[in-house]
Write a structure and sequence with these properties.
The complex is a heterodimer of chains A (192) and B (196).
Chain A: H1 17-41, H2 47-76, H3 84-89, H4 92-123, E1 128-129, E2 133-134, H5 143-178
Helix pairs in contact in A: 1-2, 2-4, 4-5
Chain B: H1 14-20, E1 34-35, E2 41-48, E3 51-57, E4 60-64, E5 76-81, E6 85-86, H2 92-95, E7 108-120, E8 123-132, E9 135-148, E10 151-161, E11 181-191
Antiparallel strand pairs in B: 1-11, 2-3, 2-11, 3-6, 4-5, 5-7, 7-8, 8-9, 9-10, 10-11
The chains are: A mainly alpha (192), B mainly beta (196).
C-alpha cells in the first residue's frame, strides 16, 4: 500500500452527527449483545442466566429498531463519498470489499436480531421489551423450529462479528498504515 | 359417600400405578365419577421479567361425589403430582429441587373442599384448603359446570401467590424477577356427574 503523504483530515467530509451517533451506539450495543449471548450459553440454569437472556433479547430488539432508523437515515442522507485521493489509492478488490462489507453488515443488523426474536417465539417465550412492552411472536411456538433457528442465529451473529473485525481492521489500516485521515468521517466529537 | 376417581391414560406405567393408589380403594364399588384425563388439564402461568411462562401438571387425580343438585353434601379433593409439573426443557429439571416444589419431601399438592355453594346457571363457588409444599391456605375457587353428551366439564381458576407456599425460594424469591402472582387454570372433564 502506498502511504498517503499527509493526514488529510481537514479535507475529509464527515458523516452527519446522527449517523455518527447511531454508528457508535450500535457498535457498543452489538458487541455487548454478542458477548452476553456467548457468555449465557455456557451458564447453568439460574436467575442470573435468565436475567441475562432477557437483557440480551431487549438489547437485540433495541438494535433492530435502531437499525431501522439507521437504514432510513442512510437512505435519506447520502454518506460522504470516499475522498478522491483515498478512492484512487484503493485497488478494485478493496473498493468491492468496502461496499460488500457495508451491505452485508446492514443485512445482518436485521437478520441477527430477527433470527433471535424468531428463536424466542419458537421456544414459546414472547419478548416483553424491557419487561414492559409485549412484542408479537414472529412464529408460533414449535420446538423443532426453535432448534433449527438457534444455530442460524449464532451463525449470523458470528458472521456479523467477522465483518465487524474486517471493518475495524480496515479502519485501523487507513488510520495507522495509510494515514489518510479516513476515520475523521466517523470520529465522535467535534470537527477535525 | 366418596367415589373414587382414577386418572387414566395420560401417562403410562408407574405413573398410573402411583395415581391409582392415591385414593383409598375402600369405596371403589360406588358408582364412580371418573376423570377423563386426556381432555383435562391443570395449567399455571407465571411471569418472569414480564414474560408470561406457561406450565402444567401432567399427572393429577380427582376424588369427588359431586352432585350439582346437592352441593352442600358434595366434596372434592384434587391431588397433583408435583414431580409432573412441566414448564420448559430448561426449567423442568429445577422444579423438583428444594427451592421450588421440593418433590422428595412434598410429592403431592392437594386441594380439599370444605364447602360448595351453587350460584346458579352452572356456577359454583368451592371453598377449600390448598396445600402445597407443607403450607395450607384457605381459598375460594369459582367454577363453571357445563354438561353435554354425558360428560361434565368443570372449568375455573384462581390467582395464588407463590411465596405463600414457599415456591421459588432462595435465589428465586425476588418477585421483580419471577412475579409472586401465579394464575392457575383448570379444566376437568368428568364422567358420572349427575345432571344439574
Amino acid at each position: 500500500m502506498k502511504p498517503a503523504p499527509s493526514p488529510a483530515s481537514s479535507h475529509v467530509a464527515r458523516y452527519t452527527l446522527t449517523a455518527i451517533a447511531l454508528h457508535w451506539v450500535l457498535a457498543v450495543a452489538i458487541l455487548t449483545a454478542f458477548c452476553v449471548g456467548l457468555y449465557v450459553e455456557g451458564l447453568p440454569f439460574s436467575p442470573a442466566k435468565l436475567k441475562l437472556i432477557n437483557w440480551h433479547k431487549w438489547a437485540g430488539v433495541t438494535i433492530l429498531f435502531l437499525s431501522v432508523l439507521r437504514l432510513l437515515w442512510r437512505l435519506t442522507h447520502r454518506p460522504p463519498a470516499l475522498p478522491a485521493k483515498i478512492e484512487s489509492a484503493m485497488p478494485g478488490w478493496q473498493r468491492a470489499a468496502y461496499h460488500g462489507t457495508h451491505h452485508l453488515m446492514y443485512l445482518l443488523f436485521f437478520a441477527v436480531p430477527l433470527l433471535g426474536w424468531a428463536y424466542s417465539s419458537a421456544k414459546g417465550f414472547p419478548i416483553v421489551w424491557f419487561g414492559v412492552l409485549p412484542l408479537p411472536d414472529l412464529v408460533a411456538p414449535n420446538p423443532e423450529l426453535a432448534e433449527a433457528i438457534k444455530p442460524l442465529h449464532g451463525l449470523a451473529a458470528w458472521g456479523l462479528i467477522g465483518l465487524v473485525a474486517l471493518h475495524v481492521g480496515a479502519a485501523l489500516k487507513h488510520q495507522f498504515i495509510d494515514r489518510d485521515g479516513l476515520l475523521t468521517r466517523m470520529r465522535p466529537g467535534g470537527r477535525a | 359417600m366418596t367415589s373414587l376417581v382414577r386418572l387414566r391414560a395420560l401417562s403410562f406405567g408407574a405413573a398410573c400405578l402411583v395415581l391409582a393408589s392415591l385414593g383409598s380403594p375402600a369405596h371403589a364399588a360406588d358408582p364412580a365419577i371418573t376423570l377423563v384425563a386426556p381432555q383435562s388439564e391443570v395449567a399455571f402461568t407465571i411471569k418472569q421479567m414480564g414474560v408470561p411462562v406457561n406450565g402444567r401438571f401432567k399427572r393429577f387425580g380427582v376424588q369427588t361425589n359431586f352432585n350439582p343438585k346437592s352441593p352442600q353434601t358434595s366434596q372434592v379433593t384434587l391431588r397433583f403430582e408435583l414431580a409432573s409439573a412441566t414448564v420448559s426443557a430448561d426449567a423442568d429439571p429445577e422444579l423438583g429441587k428444594p427451592d421450588w416444589f421440593a418433590t422428595a419431601k412434598f410429592p403431592q399438592a392437594t386441594f380439599a373442599s370444605t364447602g360448595i355453594k351453587a350460584l346458579g346457571s352452572g356456577k359454583f363457588e368451592v371453598a377449600g384448603k390448598l396445600s402445597i409444599k407443607g403450607t395450607s391456605r384457605d381459598v375460594v375457587v369459582p367454577m363453571q359446570l357445563v354438561q353435554a353428551g354425558g360428560v361434565s366439564t368443570v372449568t375455573g381458576g384462581l390467582p395464588i401467590k407463590r411465596l405463600d407456599f414457599k415456591v421459588g425460594e432462595g435465589d428465586w424469591a425476588d418477585t421483580s424477577f419471577v412475579a409472586n402472582d401465579v394464575q392457575v387454570k383448570f379444566k376437568l372433564v368428568l364422567q358420572g356427574v349427575p345432571a344439574q
